[in-house]
Design a protein that fits this description.
The complex is a heterodimer of chains A (535) and B (337). Chain A is 32% helix and 24% strand. By secondary structure, chain A is α/β, with parallel strands linked by helices. Chain A has a six-stranded mixed beta sheet with strand order 6-7-8-3-9-10, with helices on both faces. Chain A is globular and about 75 Å long. Chain A starts with 8 loop residues before the first strand and ends with a helix. Chain B has a single domain, classed as ABC transporter involved in vitamin B12 uptake, BtuC (Orthogonal Bundle). The longest helix of chain B is centred in the C-terminal third of the chain and has 27 residues. The relative contact order of chain B is 0.17. The chains are: A alpha/beta (535), B mainly alpha (337).
Chain lengths: 535, 337
């Protein structure tokens, strides 16, 4: 591979801890990166991968006591400039490109343009350099075309090229944070080729991924994190996929293999919410039914399509396919129509999509249907106040003051108000997108109780969540999404959080037979992203 | 006497809550304009008692600012929904030229002339709404553009000539009319203010507009018909601006070109300065009216001391910047984010 002696440590981090307001995100982690190798970094959501990378990039300052040595020289962690000087380069998940600019401009951002003698931008020099750089990585495309119009793998390529530009001088270590999260499978292969080329030029690589197949395809060694601690670092050839799963989730696997999915359909006449052939952003035809009184979860890592499913079902994103509440088909593309049909939606990302922070709790709550609190002469403040007070008391919102501003509440209490806003509609179908986002433990429990009560009252509830524990605590059944498609719907009884997490990683060797979707070939999520790419 | 004399039925918590609400209303920052107003009157009253503290001055300020107040009221619905309407100056200007042309040149009856002129305001609002809602052009740019187009329309219709003759006596008489000593223009202003207050504070429409202004995407996801309400807001602002035009001709008795433009900035200054009052960061009717008259009191007082004629523009410009800066500091300014 490279000219370095096998096994010589290029980067060595020892005793790295990081705490946020009392919670320990990283506990005494050691990391060794050998010269010229590709090191995989894996772990579940919340295992500390992102924190580790952010500390390396200088975005977070670690707790005292950590040391970092790069090529024999110590450097300070938690200092962005220091990390860059030492030769660490990062490609983050969102790539950080400007979509409306071409590759030439994106490459020049940050470093500055090459100048001619007159001080103007020397486009010829820029173009020559870019052609050479991207050519080394095996790319050929229009350098002035807005990168937003390029293929996803080409965009990733530009981000990598920008990170390692002149890797003969600066870059020694390239950290790739889930570069394939939004890539279709075919383009992922293209990306691996690029990663290998950068590696062949002598840059050691830390490769973070949720997808274990990629680790086996690409990496020399793999480091496993769990609950903020370093679990193991192994040579990949010595590992099997089940072995890696065992290290990642800390237990043996057997569950899902023996498990059968329950039917994706409940009895026809009882369905509160029915999704049939739902297609849209990041999602292949998706089928699911939620019965009255049932809580059905949707699990999936970020990029699996889980995060857009709620908005597609509610109609705030363009969709194709059929959505029915009860037996009424819901007009696509209109939240108003969805609400009129009996659907209520609590969006993810409360601050952007749900909260009116400068308005009162009363105003936040009643906005979902002002008709109920209006008379002929307009809004009935007192009736509004009374209803708000009832909900605040019922959901244990603190402070229990209808006239308080939403901004003055904690995240958990704000979220309860958002839930109350949906529940007061008495919805037949309730769609909850990350219902306990940014919520403390106590409020989480209350929110779960509220959701259960809504189901007991007859609503069909669809819960989309990242956290396996949450889904298991709440749901009767869980649909698992991998790379845009549903790989099966599982009864939660007897399922553990680790089983579920494992399923979402798409590595389980078995796919349930009863699932609505056609059986997929195990370990081959070839359909990834074909909705977007194929058309 | 009734509230105080019935202690048993009134349980403690609601009473306490009411007290808290009242206390919250009367915080210094919430009603500071009232204090400033009182201060201005006291200072100028002491400096120039013989000219400032007269009913004449009072009436001049009251009537002189009626049109400014109407223009500021026109802005409230768009601003509540986080939209600009810079075309109100053009709508008012067109209203002036149209109502005069209809009566003086086409010799239409007064009611028909007024009706058609108000219709022009509605049409302008619909065009603005089409550009903002359907074409998705930012409202600042959209109404900046339509404002310029309206200026062109004014010049075209009038042929560049002021209309000074031919406006019926009955129409200008209406402008000189007084209702129990209150000039007609002030009566119109108060009527518009009352309706606007009712819609913004007590109707669903008002609540929806403030919600859109607070967080448009959240409003959409909560089932608010954002496009429809934005359209309503822009139509209402166009309509009220054309009313301002009609009232202007009524008062002055002639139609000068470009008479709307001088009202644009004071209207924005008053709306934004008013937003710092009473409703904690949101535009509102009471705040707007108070702001109009605080600014006018300041300008008048300084003029009486002997300040030059340009102090008006100076005052309004400074007030606009200070008002928005205050709102940004309190973290509640949404329109300009």
């Amino acid at each position: 591979m490279a000219a370095h002696a096998e096994g010589a440590p290029l980067l060595r981090i020892t005793g790295l801890s990081k705490s946020f307001a009392g919670t320990r995100a990283l506990a005494d982690v050691d990391l060794d990166l050998r010269a010229g190798e590709i090191l995989g970094l894996v772990g579940q959501n919340g295992s500390g991968k992102s924190t580790l990378i952010k500390v390396l990039a200088g975005y977070h300052r670690p707790d005292p006591g950590a040391t970092a040595v790069l090529a024999g020289e110590e450097f300070a962690l938690g200092d962005a400039a220091g990390a860059a000087d030492a030769g660490l380069r990062f490609v983050h998940q969102d790539l950080g490109l400007v979509p409306s600019l071409g590759a030439l401009d994106n490459l020049a951002l940050g470093r500055g343009y090459r100048r001619s003698r007159l001080g103007t931008i020397s486009w010829r020099a820029e173009r020559e350099a870019a052609v050479e750089l991207l050519g080394q990585l095996g790319y050929r495309f229009d350098l002035t075309r807005p990168v937003g119009e390029l293929r996803a793998s080409e965009r990733t390529g530009i981000a990598i090229a920008r990170a390692v530009e002149g890797f003969t001088r600066g870059a020694r270590v390239l950290v790739l944070d889930e570069p394939t999260a939004s890539l279709p499978a075919a383009e992922a292969d293209r990306l691996f080729e690029v990663v290998r080329r950068v590696n062949a030029a002598g840059v050691a690589i830390v490769y973070v991924s949720h997808r274990f197949q990629e680790i086996f395809e690409l990496c020399d060694r793999v480091t496993v994190l769990k609950d903020g601690a370093h679990v193991a670092t192994r040579d990949v050839p010595d590992l099997t996929e089940p072995g890696l799963v065992r290290l990642t989730i800390g237990r043996d696997l057997e569950g899902p293999g023996a498990r059968h999915a329950t039917a994706a359909r409940s009895e026809e006449h009882d369905a509160a919410l029915r999704l049939r052939g739902l297609v849209g952003e990041g999602i292949e035809p998706f089928d699911l039914e939620v019965a009255r009184g049932e809580i059905v979860g949707v699990a999936g890592v970020t990029g699996s399509g889980r995060e857009s499913l709620g908005r597609l079902a509610f109609g705030s994103l363009p969709r194709a396919g059929l959505v029915e509440v009860g037996s009424t088909a819901v007009t696509a593309g209109s939240p108003v129509a969805s609400i009129a049909a009996g659907m209520a939606y609590v969006p993810a990302d409360r601050l952007s999509n749900a909260a009116f922070v400068d308005m009162t709790l009363r105003e936040n709550l009643t906005i979902s249907r002002l008709r109920d609190v209006s008379g002929r002469r307009g809004l009935l403040r007192e009736r509004e106040r009374q209803e708000t007070l009832r909900w605040l008391t019922d959901l244990e919102v603190k402070p229990c003051d209808p006239e308080a501003r939403l901004a003055t509440l904690s995240g958990g209490n704000q979220q309860k108000v958002m839930l109350a806003r949906a529940l007061r509609l008495g919805p037949a179908a309730l769609v909850l997108d990350e219902p306990t986002q940014g919520v403390d433990v106590g409020a989480k429990r209350t929110i779960h109780d509220i959701v259960r009560r809504a189901a007991v009252d007859g609503a069909g509830v669809l819960v989309l969540a990242t956290e396996s524990e949450e889904l298991l605590a709440l749901c009767d059944r869980v649909a698992v999404m991998v790379a845009g498609r549903c790989i099966g719907v599982f009864a939660t009884a007897g399922l553990t959080a680790d089983d579920l997490t494992e399923l979402t990683m798409g590595t389980a060797g078995t796919v349930a037979d009863g699932a609505a979707a056609a059986p997929a070939a195990p370990t081959a999520p070839v359909v990834a992203g074909s909705v977007g790419a194929g058309r | 006497m009734t509230a105080l004399d019935t202690p048993v039925e009134q349980t403690a918590p609601p009473a306490q809550q009411d007290a808290r609400r009242t206390a919250r209303f009367f915080t210094m920052s919430n009603v500071s304009l009232l204090f400033i107003w009182a201060g201005l009157i006291a200072v100028f009253g002491l400096l120039t008692p013989e000219t400032f503290l007269t009913t004449d001055t009072f009436r001049t300020v009251l009537a002189g600012q009626a049109i400014t107040a109407i223009m500021a009221l026109a802005l409230l619905m768009p601003i509540a929904a986080a939209q600009f309407d810079l075309s109100i100056a053009g709508s008012m200007g067109l209203g002036i030229v149209l109502v005069a042309t209809f009566m003086a040149k086409l010799e239409l009856g007064v009611p028909l002339a007024i009706g058609l002129t108000l219709l022009s305001g509605v049409v302008i609002g619909l065009v603005n709404a089409f550009i903002v809602v359907r074409l998705r052009v930012n409202s600042f740019i959209a109404t900046l553009g339509t404002g310029s187009i309206l200026t062109a329309a004014i010049q075209w219709i009038s042929g560049g000539q002021q209309i000074v003759a031919g406006i019926p006596q009955s129409f200008t008489d209406l402008g000189r009319h007084e209702v129990v000593g209150v000039p007609m223009s002030v009566v119109f202003m108060l009527l518009i203010a009352l309706v606007m207050w009712y819609v913004l504070e007590l109707r669903q429409t008002g609540r929806y507009l403030y919600a859109i202004g607070s967080n448009t995407e959240a409003a959409r996801l909560a089932g608010v018909r954002v496009n429809r309400l934005t359209t309503i807001a822009l139509v209402v602002s166009g309509l009220i601006a054309s009313v301002a035009g009609v009232v202007f001709v009524m008062r002055i008795g002639s139609a000068s070109l470009d008479a709307g433009t001088p009202y644009l900035l004071p209207a924005f200054a008053a709306a934004f300065l008013g937003a710092t009052q009473f409703r904690q960061g949101n535009v509102n009717v009471l705040g707007t009216l108070v702001a109009v008259y605080v600014l006018a009191t300041g300008v008048k007082g300084v003029q009486l001391i002997g300040a030059p004629f340009w102090v008006d523009d100076l005052f309004n410009g400074a007030a606009l910047i200070i008002a928005v800066a205050l709102a940004v500091r309190s973290g509640r300014q949404k329109v300009l984010v």
